[in-house]
Specification:
Largest sheet: 3 strands, mixed
Radius of gyration: 24 Å
Oligomer: single chain
Mean pLDDT: 86
Strand content: 15-25%
CATH class of the domain at 1-41: Alpha Beta
Distance between the termini: 54 Å
Number of strands: 3
Number of helices: 2
Length: 75
Amino acid sequence: MAQLNLTEAKTHFFEMIQKALLGEEMIITDEHRPLVKIVPLSAPESRRKPGSGTGQLLYMADDFDAPLEDFEEYQ
């Protein structure tokens, strides 16, 4: 994991992005304190499909959408 200070990060930003895309994590520091970590975003494994959660809800109370007692005065 590479560490760069803010000045180095400004100068080598494009190179940092390229390394992150190759899987290397980059840490940007300020006065030797870590501030941020640059990591590549992973692509979603697959697209969501409508209805894929059918049957996974096991129980829902009858008063699920009823107002809570603590908030009755706001109605």
